[in-house]
Design brief:
heterodimer, A: mainly alpha, B: mainly alpha
Chain lengths: ~230, ~50
């Protein structure tokens, strides 16, 4: 089977590498990482939850904002496709954050959900991104859609620094940042050896999903051009 | 004493896997549908 045949069947090397890296992280986290004494095995949720949150908030939505700003400046449809793809992949990562978080909260806090600032703001972000994608589907004219989406994408991303600062600004049940803070990482070396590569595994998965989604958006625009030319 | 709450992390890891794999499958399905549509349009254009 040639490379083109594999590609024709929907096979993607980068995406496969991303899934393989996350599978390796699962193996490392489940069988080769010590159990935290106070929280028990539920602490292992951190290796999926915090890493997915980092990718969604800072990478996916950051990229969406940068691509949106550049679109408003350069009006290049490729930038609109990058923003759209990054938003959709980011929504998948945020969905993981919003489901794994409560599964950690139940055994540690005693409740799946609390209407605290960090959790509520992240839920709002999920709704805003879902709204952004729904709005894209509702506008037919490509240029109008791209312009409105760019503005909404930039406005939505303004929520990200606020979400980061909620743990400092409000009394919140959510733990303080472990990595994105001035002082050293607050976990043992063995746990760091799972946690830090975990970021790279999820970044690789994000890159694979983003590239795949971007190619799909390009193909969709080509199909629309062909339909209009008929 | 360390609490026995392994079921929560097992559930969290399973849910995360379902979301990521499910999303990747949805991308493959959508891409195949688009490829089929593009091929049909090219074929139609070639006939005309």
């Amino acid at each position: 089977m040639t490379k083109d045949d594999l590609s024709e069947r929907g096979f993607d090397w980068l995406l496969t590498a991303g899934f393989a890296a996350v599978a390796a992280l699962y193996v490392r986290a489940i069988w080769f990482t010590p159990i935290e004494a106070m929280q028990g095995p539920a602490q292992k949720i951190l290796y999926v939850h915090a890493t997915s949150a980092f990718v969604a908030l800072y990478l996916a939505f950051g990229l969406m904002a940068v691509a949106s700003v550049l679109y408003l400046w350069l009006r290049d449809p490729k930038l609109d496709r990058v923003a759209e793809s990054s938003a959709e992949v980011g929504l998948a990562f945020t969905s993981v954050v919003l489901t794994t978080g409560p599964l950690w909260g139940k055994p540690i806090w005693g409740a799946f959900w609390a209407w605290d600032a960090r959790l509520t703001a992240t839920l709002f972000l999920w709704f805003l991104i879902a709204g952004y994608l729904l709005m894209r589907g509702a506008i037919e004219d490509r240029h109008t859609r791209a312009r409105y989406s760019a503005v909404l994408g930039i406005m939505t991303t303004l929520l990200v620094p606020f979400i980061h600062l909620t743990v400092y600004m409000f009394r919140t049940m959510h733990p303080m940042p472990i990595v994105l803070k001035p002082s050293a990482m607050s976990m043992s070396t063995e746990m760091q050896l799972t946690f830090v590569p975990g970021f790279f595994a999820f970044i690789l998965l994000f890159a694979g999903l983003l590239r795949f989604r971007y190619r799909m958006a390009t193909l969709r625009d080509e199909v629309l051009d062909m339909e209009q030319a008929r | 004493m360390t609490p026995d709450n392994a079921i929560y992390y097992q559930l969290a890891y399973s849910v995360a896997a379902v979301i990521y794999v499910g999303y990747a499958i949805s991308l493959v399905v959508r891409q195949r549908a688009l490829r089929a549509r593009a091929a049909a349009l090219r074929e139609g254009a070639a006939r005309r």
